[in-house]
# Entry
Amino acid sequence: MSEVWFYLLPDASAQTQQAFIVKFCETAYRRGRRAVIFCNNAQEATQLDNAIWEESKPESFIPHSINHQCTAPLQLIYDDFPNEGDILLNLTAQRLTVTGYQRIVEIVNPENREASRDRWRHYQQLGLTPELKPI
# Structure
């Protein structure tokens, strides 16, 4: 059964979200995890690709790819993504029905908490137990 983790960011700025995602990628890779980051579109995936290169620690190398262009433990996906895997970070407002991941991660936008509450209830309806995690 999937774990579902929600993270409440301190503000809704793009910079805060991007910093969280870069840290998420660093942590996942350092722990030997494989992650799919489900982006809204190609532009967001490209921006995150650049951010991972530019904002990660200088001594870090985080192997990643956009839409499986190459084999890497971190994939920035904006098209269809696999129905199962290790970690799925959902950056979209979509209510996902995928439960084949060990962990599903959601980011709570402080300016639009109702959408996050809707996704929380959706996971509960799928029989999962979402948790709010500290940053």
